[in-house]
Amino acid sequence: MKDGFLRVGAITPKLRVADIDYNASVIIASVNHADPDCSLLVFPELSITGATCGDLFRQQSFIDAAWQALYRIADETSEAPSVFIVGLPAHIEGKLLNLAVVMHKGEILGCNVKLTLSESEARYFSPYEIAGSFYDEYFDEEIPFGQPLYFCENDLFSFAVMFHDDLVAPISDDVDAALAGCHIIATLSCAPKTIGSSEKTASLLAAQSRKLHAAYIYANAGIGESTTDLVFSGENFIYENGRELVKSKSFSSSAIYTDLDLQLLFLERQRDTSWRSDFANSTADSDFDMISFEMDLNEELTLIRKVQKNPFIPEDKEEIDHRCAQILDMQAMALVTRLTHIKNDKMILGLSGGLDSTLAFLVCARACEIMEVPKTNIHAITMPCFGTTSRTKNNSIELAKAYGARIDEISIKDSVIQHFKDIGHDIDNHNVAFENAQARERTQLLMDLGNDENSLVVGTGDLSELALGWATYNGDHMSMYAVNGSVPKTLIRHIVAYEAARVKDEDPKLSAVLLDILDTPVSPELLPPSEDGTIAQKTEDLVGPYELHDFFLYYFTRLGFAPSKIYRLAKIAFDGEYDDETIYKWEQNFLRRFISQQFKRSCMPDGPKIGSVDLSPRGDLRLPSDAASKVFLDELATVLE
């Protein structure tokens, strides 16, 4: 169970209503031919008999046959590695109960009882809220039954069993189960298909799994159930921490599998302060039975779980557009609030023709619309120097003109040359002083000009640059309000692309400018260009690809994963794009820079938190400026052993 990954599955076999022998055979075949790495397999409610048997549930011989089938299932799956859960009716202590039976290696670990009964189910079944046990001669042991029962292989692989109707009840036991330490909620269902029903179920599973930092394996009745009055689609879901990992097709009898990240759920609960409240502690101490079992877990599991290479970006195109519009509004409203507070409506920023300053400019333009002031209140300054290319300078000018902002070109070359003379720096020495002097001169110009015309200096640096410390201290690192401070580079690309698509019909020329900015290599343009006039200094050649760094940033800061686990996931996410050596090299670089560059973040300017990762010392990150990165680099190095 390396890194906390566990293979799980849900299956709705094609059954025959009331044909118990046939259904048992199908279940046995499904278990024995399941993915060999699957540790937990969930079948639908009443899967041994079928859920639509009606008054057959009142026949003693029918109920007895179902329990006899359970013996057969136990015998013929005794060599199967997984724990699996099946459903059947059973008479216990004079009551007919709807059971979910947890089985492993030919034994019954426990039987959970359905508590919340629909009007039609109450015709046959009884709820049973008391946890107890009953003796079974066939197994020659006391079998735990009732509610709640919790099952545990280790601190991470722990689960509870519920039914769909219990889950949708006003008070559901999954809360107690999660607070007691269960990371997985196996949910058996025989919910009929109606218009919108699957969307409602998905919404519920997403909300509950997010709130409880849990995983839900949901198996629903499907093909073979009676359609006398209802239709059953067999739509199965597996959710983790609010995210749908996999979903079956409607009216399908195939199994779905995925790998849960139980370590992620554990870390999320550690991070969530509500899990350390007095209420959570008192609930976790409530009386319950934790049933232990042993299993050989695969330590070298080859993951089938999809790993998104851009964790800051939604996978759905429509959702991306919605997110981009939302981010622009959030940034703009934050800027408007600051401007309103200082009783000002003027903004000044450096416009380089790069991605970051373009987004900051778009935010300023949106702020003008919100405040209902002319966009001439935006003063954009392009400040060419030794490394500026005509491509970036022209794009910045065209961008400002298209939105109706003021645009001025102020060369800083003479000022920087004079500065080099003042400090005795050889202009042919292109060291860090050569680069940083230009960045600081630009910032000084903006600050002084902002003071002179009573304008707020809007910062352009983004989250990815802050993570790497890729900013000149007291240069582009500083501003009066930094609107991009929690927006990563990979997401900025999508926001600029969104704006290019939005204005395409209205202003094709502007759209073309924005697209060309997207195609321009990321560069501070502090070193002279190539002989052909193109950009020579490319940031990603120096510090590494931003898509890799944003990946490392998310999993390291947002989720707290170990570097070796991040490396493992990156190899999956970027398979075919970067080789293992390249990923390792740039993760090393990320860890070194992220830890060592905290001193820049400790005095970063104000700016709004936009997403789930924020590096402001007043926000999510508390990190000493003199911390060492050795422990993380050493842990990463274990992947080479």
Write the layout of secondary structure elements.
Layout: E1 5-10, H1 20-32, E2 38-42, H2 60-76, E3 83-92, E4 95-104, E5 107-113, E6 132-136, E7 141-146, E8 149-152, E9 158-163, H3 164-167, H4 174-179, E10 184-189, H5 197-212, E11 215-220, E12 237-240, E13 243-247, E14 256-261, H6 262-271, H7 278-284, E15 289-292, H8 317-341, E16 347-350, H9 355-371, E17 378-382, H10 390-403, E18 406-409, H11 413-423, H12 432-453, E19 456-459, H13 463-468, E20 481-482, H14 489-502, H15 508-519, H16 539-543, H17 546-558, H18 563-573, H19 580-596, H20 598-601, H21 630-637
Parallel strand pairs: 1-2, 2-3, 5-7, 8-15, 9-10, 10-11, 16-17, 16-19, 17-18, 19-20
Antiparallel strand pairs: 1-14, 3-4, 4-5, 6-7, 8-9, 11-12, 12-13
Rg from C-alpha positions? 30 Å
Mean pLDDT: 93
Secondary-structure class: alpha/beta
User: What is the CATH domain class of the largest domain?
Assistant: Alpha Beta
What is the strand content?
15-25%
Largest sheet: 8 strands, mixed
Q: Fraction of residues in helices?
A: 25-40%
CATH architecture of the largest domain: 3-Layer(aba) Sandwich
Number of helices: 21
Question: How many structural domains can be distinguished in the coordinates?
Answer: 2
Which word captures the global form?
elongated
> Which stretches are poorly predicted, pLDDT < 50 over at least 5 residues?
none
Strand order across the biggest sheet? 6-7-5-4-3-2-1-14
Measured between the Cα atoms of the first and last residue, the distance is 19 Å
Q: What's the CATH topology name of the largest domain?
A: Rossmann fold
